[in-house]
Amino acid sequence: MAVTAASAQTGSRPARPLPAAESFRLALPPAELTVHSALPGLRAAVRALVHPLFEVSDTVSPTAPRLTVTTRTPLPGPQELGTAPQLLVHPDGPRFVVLERSADRTVLLRDGEADSAPLVVTATPRTGAVSAEAPDAGPASVRAVVRFLGTLLGAQLTGRGAVFLHGSAVAVKGSSVVMLGPRHRGKSSLAFLAVTLCGADFVSDDTLVAWAQRTGVPPVLRGWPKRIGIATALLAGHPARGAFARASLRRHGSGTPRVSADAAWSTAPEGRKRVFADLDEFTSLTGAAVATDARPAGIVLPRADGNVRGWTIEPVTDRAEALDGALLSGPDLRHYTDYLGLLPRPHPEPAVRADVLAALGALPCIRVRYGPDVNADFPRFWGEVTAALALPGRAR
User: Which pTM was predicted?
Assistant: First the structure.
């Protein structure tokens, strides 16, 4: 990342915020934010991690919610946090500690994670003005800010009623093939192979958001930026194998060659080995293109099975169960929900949401069962999958 570390400061009082170094717009329409940052290089780092799934531009909007990013040392210590109320929606976090809450001001500590720093968040209700204070300008602080930016954008979409799905997707000439189903069924594997071996455009390997501009307009699908997990069994004999072995990915650093070593094909969580790449790393290593605003055109319900040779494809007429299982709700929406009212609440659009769900429910749908030998014959397999959905098999 282009972000450089800020000089350390000590003392019992918060450090004086750095002056704003840059301003930019971050958007996943219709959600948008204006960001004023004192962290050097934040715009470039954000762009590397989220673009083009999130739009990053220099033209800021005077009406968009505003996030001001600065540094602060020290952050609140154990004495301040010990008796403060906490919000923990899911055991995996993130945890928010409520330091102050009134009609005029909300102050929170967003806990750090294994690869991200804590943030102090201050909001003035109903104004759309939020600030985030990081301990420094290093990579862990930047990743924390990026995740918080995603929460603020996601909250605007969730408040309108946007449809969030757990699934993978690729696009073929502007039409997206959506892979849905429980975890460890092979959704991400099919997306990776379709992108890298058949020229499909990458949309997402984990989280999707579907929305429409208004009622009566076909929905569009966009991926949510996250680290992309690639099963190392897929890299055996793959054209990108050497590139991954030579890389120094942010998640793994100098250990990337070790973690990307070939592993046995497995569908069991304990038997799977994965390497993780940020979006810019993934596109650089594979040459993949990223599609935004693709039209959902078909649903695949995959089932990877180590005991199966070849594959079978069958049509599915009842899509309701697959869609219901993929819809994110409750704690699964914790990364896209503004529980404490940091931003003005958007106007819900239930009619648009109903149209989006109806459109998804009307898509052609197939169930695919496949075994390990699909890896070696993937172009033929993918051609049959896209033919069953009446879509072109190759995009490029």
Answer: 0.89
